[in-house]
Amino acid sequence: MSELAKPAPVPDHDTQPFWDACKEHELRAQQCTGCGRFRWPPQGFCPGCHSWDYEWRLLAGGGRVVSFSVVHHSAVPSFKEDLPYVVALIALDGTDNRVQLTSNVVGCAWEDVEVGMRVQVVFNDVSPEATLPQFRPAAAGGGEGPPRSALG
Asked: Which residue among 53, 88, 133, 138 is least packed, with the fewest CB closer than 10 Å?
């Protein structure tokens, strides 16, 4: 019996542009063109002004850890080689805390992750069809540099 592969995102009509942007190593979020409110998760109409109009805004990719958990045990065989790993809620800069992604913090020991930690997006090309946004500790001075590959 072969081991299960890690689950990949399953885009739908609302989220496809987000995943397409990730493949281009860009982090984008819906922003209402009626009132300027960011919409997360992506959806058809604005919960603030009920407008159906929006654009996919390019984000700088910086943020901060709002909450996190360290996974030490996995019942899914394909995740065992990654243990321990951090699953974190990341509030993205410039979105009035409306865009918060659940992702991994990579590039540091799990013991070094803390609430409030500044992070910067990196992209992990897990397959030709899927690129995952992950986050690494931001460089000293704010970490507003360009997104990098998680593998580079």
From this structure: 53
Q: Give the chain's domain count.
A: 1
- Does residue 76 lie in a domain region? yes
Q: What is the pTM of this model?
A: 0.87
What the block records as the tokens of 65 is 């850890």
Domain-located, residue 150: no
Residues 6+ apart with CB under 8 A from 76: 4, 6
Q: How far apart are CA 117 and CA 90, in angstroms?
A: 10
Q: Which residues, in sequence order, are CB contacts of 65 under 8 Å at separation 6+? A: 88, 89, 90, 105, 113, 114, 115, 116, 117, 119, 135
Which residues span the domain enclosing 59?
16-139
Question: pLDDT tens for residues 32-87?
Answer: 999 999 999 999 999 999 999 999 999 999 999 999 999 999 998 999 999 999 99
Say if CB 133 and CB 103 are below 8 A apart.
yes
- The gap from C-alpha 100 to its chain's centroid, in whole angstroms, comes to 8
Q: Is residue 84 part of a domain?
A: yes
Q: Please check whether residue 10 lies inside any domain of the structure.
A: no
- Is the pLDDT confidence value at 150 over 60? no
